[in-house]
Fold:
Amino acid sequence: MSPTFTVPVRRDRPRGSRSCHGHCKPLYSRPARGPSDEETKVSDRLGRPDRVRHPIFARFYQRVSAGLEVAGAAEHRARLLRDLTGRVVEVGAGNGLNFAHYPDTVTEVVAVEPEPYLRARATEATTRARARVTIRVVDGTATSLPLPDASVDAAVASLVLCSVPDQPAALAELRRVLRPGGELRFYEHVLATDARLARTQRRLDPIWTHMAGGCHVTRDTAAAIEHAGFTITECDRFPFEPGALAKLAAPHILGRATAPG
Structure:
């Protein structure tokens, strides 16, 4: 998650976009199905997910996230989820801010969130979301998803690949649960292409990580996605800087990639 400390209430559209190659209640009329026998076996095999608790940062994020949405993040989420279809896994669902943006062409969202406070907020969000989509909020981590192989049509990662302890393992796990040719949608803050800002990010990353629940500002996530075997088909880079201390995490990417097969 991308932390921010002061938030104005103006809208901030992405600037200078360019291509780069480089959380379980039913929602509206569709009843939420329980886990399948296969999913139960997978969950039992994996055991309980690693404990992830960031109680102070989770509450801070819950407080500031509404302002971030007004400042432009809601627009980014809408772009991220546009035209999705089928069954979707969302990894690191946070407090459920994506839920209102899923189109009704999505049949089910399995929203995985390990942090207890945020997972509770995400469960609440399923009752407020406007999308006519079944959303199941489940406990789990990015590296131990409680899903069988090749069981989802698309995966969504938004402001989470910055904070997973093992990014390559998380991307490999997304590949595992995606069907061949399935789609990964990503929205992340990343290492700057500007050398001066990148140096500052590297210098301050240890402090930022300590303050922000394990979030890093030095990850080249687009390169990591490609290294994991995905093919990036769309990737926009843009600055999103809704607060005075957010410059360190201003460089963002938003795009799509396909799994092999």
Remarks:
- The longest strand covers residues 178-189.
- Residues 1-50 have pLDDT under 50 and may be disordered.
- DSSP finds six helices and eight strands in the chain.
- The beta strands are 18-19, 86-91, 106-112, 134-138, 152-158, 178-189, 231-239, 251-258.
